[in-house]
Structure formats: C-alpha cells, structure tokens
TrEMBL record:
Every AB hydrolase-1 domain range: 3-227
Official protein name in the record: Pimeloyl-ACP methyl ester carboxylesterase
InterPro entries: AB_hydrolase_1, AB_hydrolase_fold, AB_hydrolase_sf
GO molecular function, one term: catalytic activity
GO cellular component, as recorded: membrane
Length: 246
C-alpha cells in the first residue's frame, strides 16, 4: 500500500496558499493530509512562541489512522518535516524538502526582521515587500501591471494573523546538529531564483543529510505559483521510485 502524504507549509503561509495547485495531482495515488499551523487559516493564533516539536506533532496528528506516511515540507515546513521524521522514525517513510534551510544566513535573517517590522504597519507596504521576496525576478518581469496589482491585493488580504510567531520561529531554527543523524530517504529541492532562502542555503541543507538527493526548480520562493507542474513531477518521481512507493 502506498503511504499517505503530509504537507507542511511555510511561514506566513497556509496549506492552501503553498500547496493548492499540487494537491489534486498528489491525491491521485496517496491520501494527502495537512494542517495550518497556529495563526494560519482557521487555526487559532498561538499565545506564545511557536515550538518546532509542537508543530511536528500537530502535523503528524492529522494522519490519524495512517500507519506510515511521507512528508513534503516547504520553507519553514522543511524544518517541521525533519523534526517529524526525528520524532516518528517508525512512521515517516520519506521527506521532500523544498526551499528549506538548516539555519538561515545573515541576509535572510535581515529580510525576516524587515518582514516582522512591516507586519504591524501598512499592509500595502508589506505586500510590496513580500512580492519582492516571494517571486523570482524572471517571473516578476513577465507579469503585467494588472497581474502585479492583483498579486499585491491578494497578499495584503491574506496575511495570516500568526505571521509574527512563524517568522520568529524561522529565526530560531537550527537543525545543523540533528541532520547528520537523519536516516530517511530525502529529496531536497532548491529554487534557482529564490530571493528569500538562497539556493546555496538549501544546498547546505541537502549536504548535511546523509544520502539526500538534490534537484532544482527554475523558480523563486513560490514554486506553487511559478512552477507547480515541475514541482509535483519531482515529488512524484522521487516517491514513486522508493521501494514502498513513498
């Protein structure tokens, strides 16, 4: 039986925002489960700092009734996926980590601080900042003025209430010591034009995981928008090639 699939979204995102174009195709072969982390979607906002172990437990709890499952993590969700594999090694069959990091570099840290400062300010200014880091430059250049305005409006209207806590967690994550002990089959996917998490940072994540495979998307930090077909192809080909089908 093909294992189920869990989806772990990124900071300032939701399952729908980060994965919706992929879910119909991924659901053809596997049961897909996901949860919005505190402050995203309809999940209540946390009353204190987020904890990576808690997010991993929340994610795994969505797979109630599933004996085994693979996990697809995106951005911050990569750290959640890794922690789920560490806490539930008998259940996690594989990891696919996209645009992730073991620890953010100084440039990304400064962008995170700017993101945090803007959250409490003008939504239009925040939307312009997020658009500049979320989409790769080649994709941005191809957008019309009307498309750009539409994206900005959508971003301003859909900023999760829990963004401050999620951005704070990103700045605290450091997986460098635990990744070398990870033994689950793993595919790490970088984004060639990522302006939030540099491709080199994602490559460092791959280098720390024994036996990890590497692939790269021709996109920025938003593969669900820029390269959904290629992204889902990489995920499915990797999972289908495993002895258990994922």
């Amino acid at each position: 039986m093909t294992p189920a699939l869990l989806l772990a979204h990124g900071a300032g995102g939701t399952v729908r925002a980060n994965f919706s174009p992929l879910i119909p195709r991924l659901s053809r072969k596997r049961k897909v489960h996901a949860v919005d982390f505190p402050g995203s979607g309809t999940t209540p906002r946390a009353t204190g700092p987020l904890d990576l172990d808690d997010l991993a437990d929340r994610l795994v709890a969505t797979a109630e009734g599933e004996e085994r499952f693979a996990v697809v993590g995106y951005s911050m969700g990569c750290a959640v996926a890794v922690r789920a594999a560490q806490r539930y090694p008998e259940r996690v069959t594989a990891l696919v980590l996209t645009a992730g990091f073991a620890r953010i570099d100084d440039e990304t840290r400064e962008r995170m601080r700017q993101w945090r400062r803007l959250v409490d300010g003008d939504r239009a200014e925040l939307a312009r900042f997020l658009l500049s880091i979320a989409l790769g430059e080649p994709f941005l250049r191809r957008m019309t003025a009307e498309q750009t305005d539409g994206f900005l409006e959508l971003i301003a209207l859909t900023i999760p209430a829990g963004t401050p806590e999620q951005v704070d967690l990103v700045q605290r994550i450091d997986l460098r010591d635990e990744l070398p002990s990870l033994s689950v089959p793993t595919l790490v996917i970088g984004a060639k034009h990522d302006r939030l998490i540099a491709p080199g940072t994602t490559r460092q994540l791959a280098d720390l995981i024994p036996g990890a495979r590497w692939a790269e998307l021709d996109s920025g930090h938003s593969p669900a928008v820029e390269a959904p077909t290629e992204w889902v192809r990489l995920i499915e080909e990797f999972l289908d090639a495993l002895p258990t089908g994922g």
